[in-house]
């Protein structure tokens, strides 16, 4: 079997089972974005089970490129990638799975004492424990332990052994990150003065909820001029709700999260929010 057909055969088998896959190059990393997709100019690939709306024929956008489509996997651009591939990876979240990546013997020992048994796959230095269910991915949840699920990829190292178990709360709890005191202080500074009890006085609480949802959608849909879109969206939200006291830290965090998902930094979000408030005299 040729170098090209070996990883491709594995990838096609996984794809047929509903597992989105992608090739990895040497160093266990995804292939870099093509020129058209550099700096996320195409808008990215938010659909995690297909080749994506950016219409790029190449293997771009790392985990978001993972696909179950055999036509994509065997396309000319992907075949070229398979020829250089060092390994096959998959997107656990796209397959409805979570991988607890145990990087050394100490981490494996901890897992055996702490986590419910599930399917395990041996790695070079440790093990992958695979659970049925998805959650947010996060690295270094404890020494030698990473969580790979949504918006992440894991190397495929074989089917493993054991029966897969439903994702337990003990694993979910590992990814819960308390906001740092500095971040809490920043949010307190950013939050506008509250004149009421958190309810929108314009119409009903649903009016505020719709407004925040529309603002999130506006930011998420931006394919260019993201900085400007974020600022104008913040300005629009504050012009309507900045003086009445109905905005809470939760609303602000939702807007910041949407902006950061488009590549904005926390610093830029902070500056855009502050500038919008200054413009409106808040």
Question: Which descriptors would you attach to this protein?
Answer:
single chain; 282 residues; alpha+beta; six-stranded mixed sheet; four-stranded antiparallel sheet; 10 strands
Q: What percentage of residues falls in helices of 4 or more residues?
A: 25-40%
Mean pLDDT: 83
Number of continuous helical runs:
10
Tally of extended strands? Answer: 10
**How much is the radius of gyration in Å?**
22 Å
Overall body shape: globular
What is the element string, with H for helices and E for strands? HEEHHEEHEEEEEEHHHHHH
Structural class: alpha+beta
Distance between the termini: 68 Å
Low-confidence spans: pLDDT under 50, at least 5 residues? 47-53, 180-186, 191-198
Give the percentage of residues in beta strands: 5-15%
Major beta-sheet overview: 6 strands, mixed
Provide a compact summary of the structure:
The chain is an alpha+beta fold and 282 residues long. It contains ten helices and ten strands.
What does this protein structure show overall?
By secondary structure, this protein is α+β, with helices and mostly antiparallel strands. The protein is 39% helix and 14% strand. The protein contains ten helices and ten strands. The chain has helices at 5-16, 70-73, 76-84, 105-114, 169-172, 181-190, 205-221, 226-241, 249-261, 266-280, and strands spanning 21-25, 29-30, 87-90, 97-102, 119-122, 127-132, 138-142, 145-148, 154-155, 165-166. Strands 4, 5, 6, 7, 8 and 10 form a six-stranded mixed β-sheet that branches. Helix 8 (226-241) packs across helix 10 (266-280). The longest helix is centred in the last third of the chain and has 17 residues, at 205-221. The radius of gyration is 22 Å and the shape is globular. Mean pLDDT is 83; it is low at 47-53, 180-186 and 191-198.
């Amino acid at each position: 079997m040729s170098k090209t057909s070996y990883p491709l055969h594995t990838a096609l088998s996984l794809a047929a089972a509903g597992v989105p896959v992608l090739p990895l190059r040497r160093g266990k990393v995804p292939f870099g974005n093509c020129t058209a997709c550099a700096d996320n100019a195409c808008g990215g690939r938010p659909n995690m089970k297909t080749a994506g709306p950016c219409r790029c024929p190449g293997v771009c956008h790392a985990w978001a490129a993972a696909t179950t489509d055999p036509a994509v996997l065997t396309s000319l651009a992907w075949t070229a990638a398979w020829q250089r591939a060092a390994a096959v990876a998959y997107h656990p979240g796209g397959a409805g799975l979570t991988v607890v990546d145990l990087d050394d013997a100490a981490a494996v020992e901890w897992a055996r004492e702490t986590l419910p048994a599930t399917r395990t796959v041996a790695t070079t230095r440790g093990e992958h424990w695979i659970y049925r269910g998805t959650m947010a991915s996060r690295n270094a949840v404890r020494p030698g332990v990473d969580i790979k699920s949504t918006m992440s990829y894991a190397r495929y190292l074989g089917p493993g052994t054991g029966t897969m178990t439903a994702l337990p709360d003990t694993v979910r709890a590992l990814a819960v990150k308390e906001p740092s005191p500095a971040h809490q202080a920043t949010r307190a500074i950013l939050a506008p003065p509250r004149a009421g009890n958190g309810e929108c006085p314009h119409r009903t609480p649903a009016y505020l909820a719709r407004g925040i949802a529309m603002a999130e959608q506006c930011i998420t849909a931006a394919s260019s001029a993201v900085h400007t879109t974020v600022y104008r969206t913040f300005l629009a939200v504050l012009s309507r709700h900045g003086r009445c006291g109905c905005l809470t830290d939760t609303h602000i965090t939702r807007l910041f999260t949407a902006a950061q998902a488009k590549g904005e930094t926390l610093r830029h979000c902070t500056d855009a929010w502050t500038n919008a408030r200054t413009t409106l005299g808040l």
